[in-house]
Structures are given as C-alpha cells and as structure tokens.
Write the structure tokens for this entry.
Amino acid sequence: MTSPAPDPVRETRRKREHERQAVVFGVIIVFMLVAGLAAVAMYTGAFSSPFSRPIYTPVAEAPQPEPCLPQVKGQPDGALPVPYSNVKVRVYNAADGSEPLAGANADALSERGFDVVASGDWQAEKIQQSEVRFGSKGITRAYTLAAQYPDVRLVLDDRKGNTVDLLVGEQYSPPLSQDRVLLSADAPMEDVEGCVPADEITPIPQVVVTKKKG
C-alpha cells in the first residue's frame, strides 16, 4: 500500500502558519527584552521614568503684602494719625455697577475734613475688595484714611508724592460712623495684621487716571 501524495496546498499553509508563529514569538521576545532592559536602566538610574516626574500645577500669585507703619521723627512711640485736612485723597469707583459710589464717598470724606482733590471712575481693572493705594511717602496718610472703613486693603505703588487713592470695589462697605473710627490724635496707630516693612515690598506701578473731556 502506497502513502498518499503530499497536498501542496496544505504544505504551503502549514509553512505560512509556522512563519507567522515565528514572527509573533519573535516580536514578543524582543518586546520582553526591551522592557527588561528599560526596567534595569530605571532601577540603576540610567534614566528616569516619565511617570516619576512631578506634576506641576499653576499657583495663583499671592497678593502684595500690606506695609507696616514707618517710624516718624518726633513720634518715638509710633506713628500718629495725620490730621484729616493734611490728607489729599482721590476717590474712584472701581466697581462694575453704575451707582455713583465715588461721589458719595468723596462727599462723606469731605464732611470729615479730608482734602478730596478728585473723584470719578477707575479706568483700569475692576476690583472686588476696596483698596487704598499710596506711595512710600503716604503710608501714615493711607492708614488714617483706611481707618474710616471696616474692610479695605492697603496697596503700595511707586508714586512719588503723598496723595492717596481710594478705590471703591465690588464688595463695598460704607464708611464707619465717626464714633467707631479707632483713631485718636495723641494715640499711635496700630499696624495691620501680617504687615511687612515697606522697604521689603515691591511697589506696583501707579495707575494714573486721566480726566475725561466733556
């Protein structure tokens, strides 16, 4: 009895299957070798894994610290309030609303004796919390003005003079009644909590408000 003749089609298919299996096993072996070498390299510190890199998230810029009161010549116990008539103030509405906040505050401060030299709309960014802005020569004047309000921030800018600006913000609080203003002509003022000496603060650029024609 003779053996059946080999089927050429079947032989070709078997040969292709063997070749495909060889390729698949070869790829798996190469991948395992590469993975093993990478693991050894990371273990020995040859290179770092991308998953070990720290993830950095943007941090909001911290607000400028508020300045402490300066030492004043002739006032060894601390800086005294400045007489209201010696405090030149500009009052600006820095809120989005149309309510005439600047004029109302200018009138209130004028009635108390402050020298209000200008009022109007703030032409820069709108702000939330009301601010008193001033230069290094106007710190005691800024503290004197800020004492009239329950919640304002003291912001140091790079102006040269001693005029101070009151920016009435979105979170507006009206002036305290005069009997609640904690100032006395012969009692030194107190530093705001967490203050920093003015010479350790980088002043922000002064914003100059131009008068509108009309």
